[in-house]
Amino acid sequence: MFNKTTSTIVREPGHETVKNIEIDYTFSESQIDQQIQCPKDTDINDFISFNLCELVEDSQSFFLFVKGQCKMECDTMCAGQGNKYLWQVGQDKPQELKAVDYCNCLYDQITENLQNPKLFPITEPYPKDFLKYVKQMFRRLFRVFMHCYCSHFDLIYKSGMEQKLQYQIKYFAEFMKKYQLCEIEDLEPIKHLLDQK
Ligand SMILES: [Zn+2]
């Protein structure tokens, strides 16, 4: 069990603000089920945006933790054997990048997207294709967790962070499934972890 400081969306007339609160997270399936429910008075797209920001922050803190080892050891962005991810921007040809370079490109791209008011408006409605864009962001960010889990588990285990990583993987996997932000095959590399009760 561990505690995590997280944030919640507070809706005010015309705009949303984010306020920090303390929540006790425990590693229980039923608690995750509750946590991924969109609160009744919250817009679903606000809730998805909020969780996307959480995923950016949580995945990035694990990436930064393994970055030194990753730079030396990982020639490709992968999640276990046979699951290699190529980097692609728009219609460009997909390219194979070192895992560190893939993650750096990913966080640069996500930061740019999050600052784009056409995608994440403050007062205007969300764009019609909002889910299409966030789905791609969720899928790519989740690969960072899977890479950390599959390629850097020893380092994470030695530092006593494996339970936190496992919790976050389970939380975001359930979240993405519930809101159709991934394909089932995206979760295949960590299926054994997700099947564990
Ligand atoms: Zn790595």
Question: Summarize this, please?
Answer:
By secondary structure, the protein is an alpha+beta fold. It has helices spanning 29-35, 44-73, 99-114, 130-151, 153-158, 162-178, 191-195; strands spanning 2-12, 15-25, 77-78, 84-85. The chain has a two-stranded antiparallel sheet. Strands 3-4 form a two-stranded antiparallel sheet.
Fold and architecture overview:
- This is Mob1-like protein.
- It comes from Hexamita inflata.
- The longest helix is centred in the N-terminal third of the chain and has 30 residues, at 44-73.
- The protein has a two-stranded antiparallel sheet with strand order 1-2.
- Helix 2 runs parallel beside helix 4 (130-151) and helix 4 (130-151) runs antiparallel to helix 6.
- It has one domain (2-195): MOB kinase activator (Butyryl-CoA Dehydrogenase, subunit A, domain 3, Up-down Bundle), CATH 1.20.140.
- It has helices at residues 29-35, 44-73, 99-114, 130-151, 153-158, 162-178, 191-195; strands at 2-12, 15-25, 77-78, 84-85.
- The chain is an alpha+beta fold and 197 residues long.
- The chain is 52% helix and 13% strand.
- The structure holds zinc ion.
- The site of zinc ion (ZN) has 7 residues, from helix 2 and helix 4.
